[in-house]
Structure formats: C-alpha cells, structure tokens
C-alpha cells in the first residue's frame, strides 16, 4: 500500500469509536499470535496505534537553562487523557490479555475452555471496588504514568492478575468460605459468576499457558504422530494437566490446527483406542466435547449466514463442517445412543435442515427469471433485475459447492436432484430464449435480451465458461440475423 492508502486507512480508523478500535486491536493481535495474515495485521495495528496513541509533536528545546513547566492546559488534559484511556478499555485489555485466546462473544452456554468477553467489565469494576483495590490503584497509576510498554506497567499488571486470582478463588475456589452468595451477587449476573473460576485459573496459571504457547508451532497443518508427540510433551505440565486447566491448554493447541477437529487425535492417542468409552475415561476426552461444540457453533453460523443471504464464504464453512463431521465419524467409534453420538447426529441434522430449505428454493427462483412471457405481458422498458440475477447465480454456485460435501452433511439426495433439475431447465430455457430473439415484438426485445444475459450467467455457473461463450455467440447471431431480416423487409 502506498502512503496515500495508509493515510486513508488511518483516517478511517480514527473515525471509529474507542470500543471498536480496542476490539480491532485485540483481534489483530490474536491474528499475529496465530500466525494468520501477519503482514496485514501488523500494518493495521501500526496505523491503529498511531490513532489511539498519536505521536507527540516535536517541540524545540527551550533557550533558557531553567526547567520548563508544562502549560496549565496540559496539566488539565492529563486527568482527562487518563479517563479517556480508562474508558477506551486499555486498562482491562492489558490486565486480561492472558484471557484473550479463550474469550468468546457468545452470551449463552459455553464449552470447556471458553470465557465470556462480556464478563470482564464486571470483574474489572469489582476489582477496583472491593476485590483488590490497592493493586488496582497501583496498576491504574502505572498505566497513567507509563503508557502501555513500560516494565512498571507489566509488573503492576502481573501483581493485579495474581491478586485478582487470589480474590476470586476465595469466592469460587474449592476452599471458599463465608457468605458466598451475597458476595457473588455483588459482582454480576449468573453468567458472570460462571466465568469467575475460569478467569481465576487462567490468571493464576498465566506462565504455564505462556510457556505452552511459546512451544507450539505457528500452524499445525496435519496433527500426525510426530506432532502429537511434541504437543503432548508441551502440555505435560502439572498445572495444565488438571481437569479445570486442560480445556484451556487444548484450546490453545486447537487455535494452531489448520483442521481444528483433529484435536480429537490427542484423545485417541492417550486412550490408545478409538472406542468412545475408553476415550471418555481419560482426561483428554474433553477434546471430543470441545470439537463437537465447535462444530455445533459453526453449524449455527452457517444457518445465520444462509438466513442473511451471505453465500460468498459458505464454501469454506461447508468444507470445515464436512471435514469435521467425517473426521469424528471415521476416527471415533461413536455409538448412536451415546451423548457424543446423539450430539453429532443433531449437528448433521441441523446442517441438513439449514441447507435443504435453501437448496429447494433455487430452481423456483431461476424459473421466475427465465420463464417465457407473452409479448403483450411485457411492458415497455421492462428488464430483469441484475441484482436478483447475481443472487440466483450465487445460489446456483452454492448448490454446486454443496455437491462436494453432500454425503457427510446428509443432503445427497436433495442436492443431486436440484442440481440436475437446474441443469436441464437452464439448458432448455437458454435455447428457447435465444430463439425468441429472432422474432417477437420489438418493444419486448430489451426484456428478452436481459433474460438471455441472465441465462448465460447461469450457464457459466452450471456448465462452465466454454458453454456460456457458445450461447453468447448464438444470442449475438440471433440478434444480428433479426436485424438483417428487418432491414431486408
């Protein structure tokens, strides 16, 4: 990108609200940690930091040797800047940075190894109010004095993290005492209370998680035997082997996997079997629960995208779902009546229902665009909506993509039937529409031409570029032949 493009990006980022800037910064930092789009993420982060913390203007040194006091306006602005930084989320973001890999925007039930992002603000406020007010004040003072990169801020953040973990464990840990219900109610809603123990454990074991993070490769394309051995060795830390912490360690590993469902291979390796009963009996059985929950969430995303008409990235989603379902079915001996078996069946049914209803609608939408109408029923200047044509073309492409994954997603029959129906109908309708260009009322010709253009667009998706070009030449010949006959008459 050139300098002008950087300036445009910085101007756009500067128009975002502080909360959106903080969210973008977190997501791009996570992308860099995962090794995804590092060049783009680094470039955007650089511009974001210039927006959030613009460089101070150069000031000429004073001529006199006596110290220069800052203007009164600067003294007044400092508390205001601290307050703006506090409101923009820099403090909570810095404090809760160890939680970032495990945060989710979901407000419903969570799988093991996840924490609700919405819970952090309530915990942050509670720490300043009564949880760890002294450490909170030290951290706030360090943030105000040193910005984001000083050693003092890091030390203050770690002290507050440990204090937060200790205070939370007194409320929700195994040895909690006192009037817990009254104290917990002062922190937040029940969903926040559910997150308190995971938050405390992750903050308490930050060093172990950081160590695991540093030992994992940037991306694991295939979790084979050698990779399983190295990952198992990296996780073999006593503090990460507890039932409460193992899901978080597995979540870190999962984020490095090109195919996240392969996390189940750790469980089958530890169990030395693919039998679900033996796998479930090991602590690593939670990996199967995590994989199933992530597939269920991805199926919900697919359903939401279909409802909104977002078909551009569905191919990647379908492939991930297909590979995950197939991997679980082939690498685990799941019983249909078990909890895992029922959950996988429900996921396949959810995917099938979401896809089938949309696939069934495609032939009807194509027919509405390409159906022949009598000349007298076509008003002057009428034409086919180009936006609708592109929507239907995207739907036809969607059906074509579904064919590649139909068997595992339980949509084999409907996909094959619909795709065959589309091919037969579009082929016949295109030929009929091309012939209609040779005759008919001149007033309706523009509408016929727009129909032919739509049919050729559909042919491109269904039959490829060569056939679409052939029909395009046939349409041109039909139009030229009709013009010659009109001049001869």
Quaternary structure: single chain
Query: Structurally, how many domains make up the residues?
Result: 4
Q: What is the typical, i.e. mean, pLDDT?
A: 84
How much of the polypeptide forms β-strand, as a percent range? under 5%
Q: How many beta strands in the DSSP annotation?
A: 2
Helix-and-strand structural type: mainly alpha
SS field, number of helical segments: 22
SSE sequence, one letter per element? HHHHHEEHHHHHHHHHHHHHHHHH
The major β-sheet equals: 2 strands, parallel
- Helix share bin: 55-70%
**Low-confidence spans: pLDDT under 50, at least 5 residues?**
54-78, 81-88, 484-489
Estimated radius of gyration: 30 Å
Q: State the separation between the terminal residues, measured CA to CA.
A: 60 Å
Shape: elongated
Strand order of the largest sheet: 1-2
Using brief descriptors, characterize the structure shown:
single chain, 489 residues, mainly alpha, 4 domains, two-stranded parallel sheet, elongated
């Amino acid at each position: 990108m050139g300098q002008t493009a950087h300036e445009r990006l910085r101007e756009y980022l500067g128009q975002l609200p502080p909360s959106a800037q903080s969210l973008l910064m977190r997501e791009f930092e996570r992308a860099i940690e995962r090794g995804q789009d590092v060049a783009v993420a680094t470039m955007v982060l650089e511009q974001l930091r210039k927006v959030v913390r613009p460089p101070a203007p150069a000031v000429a040194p004073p001529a006199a040797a006596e110290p220069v006091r800052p203007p009164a306006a600067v003294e007044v602005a400092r508390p205001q800047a601290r307050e703006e930084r506090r409101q923009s989320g820099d403090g909570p973001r810095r404090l809760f940075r160890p939680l970032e890999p495990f945060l989710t925007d979901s407000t419903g039930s969570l799988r093991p190894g996840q924490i609700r992002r919405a819970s952090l603000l309530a915990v942050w406020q509670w720490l300043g109010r009564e949880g760890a007010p002294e450490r909170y004040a030290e951290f706030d003072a360090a943030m105000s004095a040193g910005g984001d990169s000083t050693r003092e801020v890091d030390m203050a953040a770690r002290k507050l993290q440990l204090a937060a973990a200790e205070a939370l464990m007194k409320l929700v840990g195994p040895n909690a005492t006192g009037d817990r219900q009254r104290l917990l109610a002062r922190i937040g809603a029940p969903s926040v209370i559910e997150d308190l123990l995971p938050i405390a454990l992750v903050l308490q074991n930050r060093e172990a998680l950081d160590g695991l993070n540093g030992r994992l490769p940037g991306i694991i394309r295939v979790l084979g035997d050698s990779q399983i051995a190295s990952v198992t060795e990296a996780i073999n830390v006593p503090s990460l082997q507890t039932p409460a912490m193992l899901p978080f360690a597995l979540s870190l590993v999962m984020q490095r996997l090109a195919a996240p469902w392969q996390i189940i291979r750790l469980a089958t390796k530890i169990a030395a079997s693919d039998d679900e009963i033996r796998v479930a009996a090991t602590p690593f059985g939670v990996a199967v629960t995590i994989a199933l929950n992530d597939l269920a969430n991805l199926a919900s995303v697919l359903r939401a995208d279909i409802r909104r008409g977002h078909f551009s990235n569905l191919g990647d989603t379908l492939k991930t779902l297909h590979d995950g379902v197939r991997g679980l079915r082939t690498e685990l001996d799941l019983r249909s009546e078990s909890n895992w078996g029922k959950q996988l069946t429900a996921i396949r049914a959810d995917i099938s229902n979401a896809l089938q209803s949309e696939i069934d609608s495609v032939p009807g939408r194509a027919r509405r665009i390409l159906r022949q109408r009598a000349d007298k029923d076509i008003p002057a200047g009428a034409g086919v909506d180009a936006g609708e044509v592109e929507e239907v073309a995207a739907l036809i492409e969607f059906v074509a993509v579904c064919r590649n994954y139909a068997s595992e997603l339980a949509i084999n029959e409907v996909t094959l039937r619909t795709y065959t129906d589309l091919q037969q109908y579009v082929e016949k309708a295109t030929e009929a529409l091309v012939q209609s260009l040779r005759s008919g009322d001149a007033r309706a010709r523009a509408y016929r031409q727009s129909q032919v253009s739509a049919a050729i667009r559909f042919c491109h998706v269904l039959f490829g570029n060569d056939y679409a070009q052939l029909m395009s030449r046939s349409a041109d010949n039909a139009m030229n032949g009709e013009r010659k006959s009109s001049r001869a008459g």
